[in-house]
């Protein structure tokens, strides 16, 4: 199993540098990105071979954010970090 984790410091920036081609070449089973720096409205990318899961800052649009891509559909997913 191949897992890649990367602090990308902005998804839009790496998209302009050939990220989809790189992802297609590397073919990780799971890809985790930190600091995507996009909001829910901006995530218009089709990751053809992957299920995609996003988390965004609700209070600061385009700030921080994470993305997880998985070739296999997870058995379960959870949104949020639970009740406080």
Explained architecture:
With 84 residues, the chain is of the alpha+beta class. The chain has one domain. Helix content is 15%, strand content 24%. The protein has two helices and four strands; from the N terminus they run βααβββ. It has helices at residues 11-15, 19-26; strands spanning 3-7, 30-34, 51-55, 66-70. The chain has a four-stranded mixed β-sheet with strand order 1-2-4-3, with no helix packed on it. The longest helix is centred in the N-terminal third of the chain and has 8 residues, at 19-26. It is globular and about 35 Å long. The termini are far apart. The relative contact order is 0.23.
Keywords:
2 helices; alpha+beta
Poorly predicted segments = none
Q: Note the main sheet.
A: 4 strands, mixed
Counted beta strands: 4
Helix content: 10-25%
Cα gyration radius (Å): 13 Å
Which descriptor suits the 3D outline? globular
Question: What is the tally of helical segments?
Answer: 2
Structural class: alpha+beta
Terminus-to-terminus distance: 34 Å
Strand line-up in the sheet with most strands: 1-2-4-3
Secondary-structure element pattern, one letter each: EHHEEE
């Amino acid at each position: 199993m191949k897992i890649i984790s990367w602090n990308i410091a902005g998804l839009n920036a790496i998209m302009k540098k050939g990220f989809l081609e790189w992802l297609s070449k590397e073919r990780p089973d799971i890809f985790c990105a930190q600091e995507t720096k996009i909001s829910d409205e901006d995530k218009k990318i089709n990751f053809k071979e992957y299920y995609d899961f996003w988390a965004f800052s609700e209070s600061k649009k385009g700030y921080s954010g994470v993305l997880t891509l998985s070739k296999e559909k997870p058995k379960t997913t959870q949104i949020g970090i639970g009740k406080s």
